[in-house]
Amino acid sequence: MTRTAQPAVAGGNPAHVDRDDAIGTPPKSPTLVPAERYHSAAFARLEVERMWPKVWQVACTVDHVAEPGDYFEYRCGPYSVLIVAGDDGILRAFQNVCRHRGNSLCSGSGSELREVKCGYHGWTWDLSGSLRRVPNRKGFGALRMSEFPLLAAKVDTWERLVFVNLDTDAIPLGEFLEAVPNDIAWCGLDDFRCYATITVEVDANWKTIADGFSETYHIQTLHPELHRCMDDVYAPQMIWGHTGKSEQIYGVPSPLIKEPLSDAEVWDAYVTTQGALMGLAEDTAFPADERRAGQSVSDVIAQRTKAFATGRGVDLSWASTDQILRLHQYNVFPNMSVLANADHLTVLAARPGPDPDHGELVMILWMRMPPGAPRAKPADMRMTTDEAHPGLVLSQDIAVLAGLQRGLHQPGLTHLTLSNEERRVINMHRNLERYLDLPESARMTGGETP
């Protein structure tokens, strides 16, 4: 498949061509966000009542529900949605509840579902949601089967992601995603295949989890290895509404590092943090003998990435060094982050747990495959933070979460103090305030004018 290349950058090192930095125009003062939003049971109840039932949420991938009879249960806090691939090839979503006494109908995921049957009293629906059998029906009197279909939820797809919304009157998914689909269309996300989803149970609020994937301010402290091979300064951000974006160029050291780094040192940092994208072991030395005249270390990384792709039948000849090493990180309210470049796709979602101090980090992992590659059912895994080892950088992100959540409870911490570098976090709170219809006294203060 031929891709439309973005403008190439001469010399192979595009790091400082776009001089927009991560901060943008500094505000007059920091943005203050009430800390109780991250641990208050009352605030969490507002989210459950006013926000979670009204927003589009990524639930699974088309690889989970590609064949008739495939099903997937999506849970978010107290809510459960059943996604079913019908015999007619249509994808449908239903509230996961029996119309008789409220029993949950399905759990987990699977294949070859022929009907939806309640395991309590046997009420049974077909895959289109129509009620077909009620045991001892005469006991109900004039019970009209047509009046008791499964309760519908909205379902739609973007590329290979499946989204659900409990609000059947919600705006279309395409409208909710705003500029994101067009902005990343060049990348050809449909050629990626999901090979695994990993759900990590975290001792932190879902917003604490999501915030870590909404700013680059923490890179210099939490990720010293990544800091040596990523530009966290000239990392422009955009806000569109429900969505936002940051661009980060890899294969170059951060401008905040004052001592010069050799190409070999940048290579080592990249291999340590991103080596899997080149199919390389962590201790692979810099291949100086492979570098052609005029090539930067970024060009060598891109060259190795293309060779790794070729080995699995993927042609990346269309991709420039910039397209391979510039990470496009999209935030979609309330809880999704998409990280993509020419040969990488990871989707992260933060979901609420049983109480405000617990949540889930869901990692949806992909690999670009040749066009038309067969679909395979992804492996779905659930684990604790002690069991999760998703690579150096994500492990560092996960390790800090429990301490963050404990700190947010301290009585002296009334507000989070946010920089404009954290404006994707601020934008999440701005949207949250709108959905929850908070009074002025409970809203953020300072910072930019919305």
Relevant terms:
single chain, 450 residues, alpha+beta, nine-stranded mixed sheet, seven-stranded antiparallel sheet, 12 helices, globular
Strand-helix topology:
Elements: E1 31-34, H1 41-51, E2 57-61, E3 71-76, E4 79-85, E5 91-95, E6 109-110, E7 116-117, E8 124-125, E9 131-133, E10 152-158, E11 161-165, H2 173-177, H3 180-183, E12 192-202, H4 206-211, H5 219-222, H6 224-227, E13 230-231, E14 237-239, E15 243-250, H7 263-274, H8 297-310, H9 321-325, E16 326-332, E17 336-341, E18 344-352, E19 359-368, E20 379-384, H10 392-399, H11 401-407, E21 415-418, H12 423-436, E22 445-446
Parallel strand pairs: 12-20
Antiparallel strand pairs: 1-21, 1-22, 2-11, 3-4, 3-6, 4-5, 5-10, 7-8, 8-9, 10-11, 12-19, 13-15, 14-15, 15-16, 16-17, 17-18, 18-19
Task: Tell me what you see in this structure.
This protein is an alpha+beta fold and 450 residues long. Helix content is 21%, strand content 26%. The protein is built from twelve helices and 22 strands. The strands form four sheets. Strands 12, 13, 14, 15, 16, 17, 18, 19 and 20 form a nine-stranded mixed β-sheet that branches. Strands 2-11-10-5-4-3-6 form a seven-stranded antiparallel β-sheet, with no helix packed on it. A hairpin with a 6-residue loop joins β18 (344-352) and β19 (359-368). The radius of gyration is 24 Å and the shape is globular.
